[in-house]
Design goal:
heterodimer, A: MetI-like fold, two-stranded antiparallel ribbon, 14 helices, 69% helix, B: 289 residues, mainly alpha, MetI-like fold, 2 domains, 0% strand
């Protein structure tokens, strides 16, 4: 109790900072438990064989060799994931900028309405189920009956069970939902560019919209564009959910299996945690490299 | 602080340019909302109208609430009333969002204004971790759940989302942009402790960002589907039931549309409330390297 005296008068540096540690701790605990530890434990586990009940067996790089050479599904799921990311990532990134740029000129009320219009599919998260019904395989499916009535097809197509169509459909649905957080950030970034920059630009000889976009808008928004790119990488590599919901797992001829879906199957269904961790590590690495490359690319904008 | 960009009209467009401009917006706008409109109208159609050939997009000849009213019966074979799923969803989403916003705001304040050693490095790690969400982390997280005996409890909905870095990231950037250091210094000279500064000064200033995080948090948790971690029917949320109903084929598509509409309403309401703050809050969302 005698210690109480010490707290009188101006507080000492550390005592004063105790509230700061208290406020930071809850987040740090959650972050460590559910992000840092999972990432590091999967790096360690990827060198072991572990089925959740038995003991850990150190097997070196065997999980990685198995991934590359002994797993029939992995190469297919890698190919699908890359294809998916290469198409929907850049397209989603571009669309979320272009649409924000196009609606930027509208008066505020119209802009608010249009933002809602484009953001709505991402806002209502699970609504991609609608596409399951639109693409339903019988002639009552909206898209089938539409094409039938136009005479473009003569028999209903079982869209979601056809290896030729399933990937494009999943990409379409992903794009439908890609005007999310990055779209909102772009709208906001465009609104906040200092108008004087444009005035100065026109004195410096900027003659049209495109030059203005390249020399003023892009450089002013570089940080927002990087944020937006990160959001799109995150979404396009994690595309397992939409794929599983629409195509099932395993999908027809594995045509729509993604790395995430494969990892879930190996991990939470077959409990081969060591191997699932190796797949996870591979995916984390792939995403990190993409992120770094895009950071470098954006550095070149406006130069 | 904001300028109306529309006030500065600088370049005009050619006629052809205008056509392309409005065509692009129109086509994309329709692509965005037509599926949603079709979903809403279909949810009010009787079965024979849904099965009408060719289907109608907007017109409903004999509107009915049958699809909504039949939802509880449809689920009766699951032994769990629909209301249980709805209340689970609301409980999990509201609690998680509240905790998420509160925890993220506190941490962001400390990282932005606390001058603690290591703050910069922690924030850099957080910024990089934006890349990884619970979908990519699902399998490694599963091990943590299992070690902490969290499998098949409400905890799997709540805790992983608290680790989401988006909240801390956006809030820290916002505080950097909108809370002047002079204000902090003035408060410190007045002898205010950090808790007092946080609740009395920071919270009122960052309100737009709080509303924005509420929107993002609610939207994510509301639609989250746990990956292999929830087995008990009485712990399941609406998205999981939705998956069951929507795989019921054409005969159930009316009900599937109805449950989808129900799912759409809460996030849209939250958006309506927070919408005017989002643009302001997101302006500081850039990643600085």
């Amino acid at each position: 109790m005698g210690n109480k005296l010490r707290f009188k008068g101006p507080k000492s540096g550390f005592t004063r900072k105790i509230p700061l540690y208290i406020m930071l701790t809850p987040f740090l605990i959650a972050f460590c438990l559910f992000t840092v530890i999972p990432i590091f434990s999967s790096i360690v586990l990827s060198f072991f064989s572990y089925d959740m009940v038995g003991k850990f067996d150190f097997i070196g790089l065997d999980n990685y060799f198995r991934m590359m050479m002994d797993d029939d599904v992995f190469p297919v799921s890698l190919k699908n994931t890359l294809l998916f990311a290469i198409v929907t990532g850049p397209l989603g990134f571009l669309l979320s900028f272009v649409l924000a740029w196009l609606i930027n000129e509208f008066p505020p009320k119209a802009r608010t309405f249009l933002s809602f219009l484009f953001y709505a599919p991402a806002l209502v998260g699970n609504a991609y189920f609608i596409w399951k019904i639109l693409f339903s395989g019988d002639s009552y499916g909206y898209i089938n009956s539409f094409l039938l009535s136009l005479g473009l097809i003569t028999e209903p197509i079982i869209w979601l069970k056809d290896a030729n169509y399933i990937m494009p459909i999943i990409m379409l649905v992903q794009l439908w939902q890609s005007m999310g957080v990055s779209f909102l950030a772009n709208i906001s970034g465009l609104q906040n560019i200092n108008g004087e920059l444009y005035e100065a630009g026109s004195i410096d000889g900027i003659r049209n919209r495109w030059q203005e976009l390249w020399y003023i808008t892009f450089p002013s928004m570089k940080n927002i564009l990087l944020f937006s790119a990160v959001m799109q990488i995150q979404a396009s590599f994690a595309a397992g959910t939409i794929a599983v919901e629409l195509a099932g797992f395993p999908s027809i001829n594995h045509a729509a299996d993604t790395i995430v879906a494969h990892m879930m199957d190996v991990g939470t269904v077959r409990y081969e945690m060591g191997y699932a961790s190796a797949i996870a590590v591979f995916l984390f690495g792939l995403m990190a490299i993409t992120r770094i490359v895009i950071g470098k690319l954006l550095d070149m904008v406006g130069k | 602080m904001r300028r109306e960009a529309s006030a500065v009209r600088r370049f005009t467009r050619s006629k052809a340019g205008n056509v392309v401009y409005f065509l692009f917006l129109g086509v994309f706008g329709l692509f965005s909302v037509l599926p949603l409109i079709y979903c809403v109208t279909s949810s009010f159609k009787p079965l024979d109208e849904i099965m009408l050939f060719p289907p109608r997009l907007v017109v409903v000849a004999r509107p009915t609430f049958e699809n909504y009213l039949s939802l509880p019966n449809l689920l009766s074979n699951l032994k769990i009333p629909l209301s249980r799923y709805v209340s689970n969803s609301l409980f999990v989403s509201i609690l998680t969002t509240a905790l998420y916003v509160f925890i993220s705001t506190m941490a962001a304040f400390v990282l932005a204004k606390g001058n603690l050693k290591g703050s910069k490095i922690i924030f850099m790690i957080i910024q990089f971790a934006l890349l990884y969400t619970s979908y990519t982390l699902a399998v490694p997280q599963y091990l943590v759940f299992s070690n902490l005996k969290m499998i098949d409890t409400y905890a799997v909905y709540i805790f992983p989302y608290l680790a989401s870095t988006m909240g801390v990231f956006l809030m820290k950037q916002y505080i950097d942009g909108y809370v002047p250091n002079a204000l902090m210094e003035a408060a410190e000279i007045d002898g205010a402790g950090y808790f007092r500064i946080f609740f009395r000064i920071i919270i009122p200033i960052v309100k737009p960002c709080i509303l924005t995080l509420t929107l993002f948090g609610f939207r994510d948790v509301w639609s989250a589907v746990p990956q292999g971690t929830i087995f008990s029917e009485q712990l399941k949320t609406l998205p999981q039931v939705m998956a069951q109903i929507t795989s019921g084929g054409i005969a159930r598509s009316g009900s599937a549309m109805a449950v989808t509409v129900i799912m759409m309403i809460p996030p849209i309401l939250v958006y309506m409330i927070s919408q005017s703050n989002v643009v302001e809050a997101m302006s500081s969302a850039g990643i600085k390297e």
